[in-house]
Amino acid sequence: MDVSMSWALPVKVDRLGAHLQAYVETLDTIITLRLCNRHGAGSGIFVQKLPVEIVQIIEKLIFREICKAKYPEWQVELHCFENECRPVDHLSREEQLDCYFGHDDYTADVCCDCQKEAGLPSHDEPDDEQLQKRLAKLDEQGHFDNYEWYDVHSERQGDWVTRVGNAKSIDGFFDEHDELLGKHFGVSVWTSHVRLDREKWRHNYDAAHTIVAYLTLPDPYQRELRWEMSEDDRECGPWTGCESGYGIPVKLIGHPTPASLQRFARAMNILDLKVFEHESQAGPPVGFRLKNAVIKEGPPKKKTWPKITLLQRSLPID
Q: pTM here?
């Protein structure tokens, strides 16, 4: 496992990934726009006449449009990785439209007005909201129960791990752009794959995971430990129910300067992020499993981020 302590702030991993990807892909365009605004010359160049406020609005519009295009790619793979997907989610757009128009309660001979009155799909291609509403209804009726979707599902799970990397092979998207994050925002990204509670899984599979992400001030790992499982552990499980327990000295960190903490606000603003603490990170209070433990109920306390956070992550076996 590796252990570090840093000022950190939790964010939604798919939103962070999509928005960072959009930032990287629009960076050259935005730099060119700014240069033309400041130094452009010639009778046919009008960008230099625009107020800075207008240029900033244009930058945000460009960035947000790319974010909209990138986010579904990250979201669909994460949903499969978490087993939060439905069989219908694995259909291509063309297959979804075939389902939208191709079931028994759709009749091509019925006029569009009659179809609308009966709640049936019209001949026109639907927008996304109409399509998803229709597919959800068909899903409830069991139209996709026999659809062969698991191969697509498994492929997306593999694509997600390739996209984000893991603690054993640090070669994912966030590690690829770690230098850019440090240079442009003064922060790093810490991620960890986390096992989900079986009661929350949509599908009854052997495992379902998510990945949690934190923006952190760059700090080196303070301790790293690795161990090997025995053949008995691999084949039969630990025969005594062993745990992995370590007393790890951690160097306490001091309070950062206001300028250092401002890095978080700048990154959150430019990348259009929000604080997101995954439920897997909010474990029960100490003593929750004791019979006589008394849990005080009440409204949740509002948390202020960033916080000094102990980041601990188990490492896969080599």
A: 0.79
Structure tokens at 20: 């960072």
How big is the CA angle at 194 (ends 191 and 198), to the nearest 5 degrees?
160
Taking CA 263 as the corner, what is the angle to CA 258 and CA 269, rounded to the nearest 5 degrees? 125
Ordered DSSP codes for 223-290: EE------HHHHHH--TT--------------PPPHHHHHHHHHHHHHTT--B---GGGSPPPTTTTS
DSSP single-letter state for residue 300: P
Quick: pLDDT tens for 144-175: 777 788 889 889 988 998 899 875 555 789 99
**Cα–Cα distance measured from residue 278 to residue 267, given in angstroms and rounded to the nearest whole number:** 20
Q: What share of the chain is helix, strand, coil (3-state, %, to 5)?
A: 45, 10, 45
Q: 137-141: which pairs have CB atoms within 8 A and are 24 or more residues apart?
A: 138/88, 138/99, 138/103, 139/86, 139/87, 139/88
Residue 88 near residue 144 (C-beta atoms within 8 A) = yes
Burial class (CB in 10 A: 0-12, 13-18, 19+), 11: buried
C-beta separation of 156 from 92 below 8 A: no
Pull the structure tokens for residue 28.
Answer: 């050259």
Distance in angstroms (rounded) separating the CA atoms of residues 279 and 313: 17
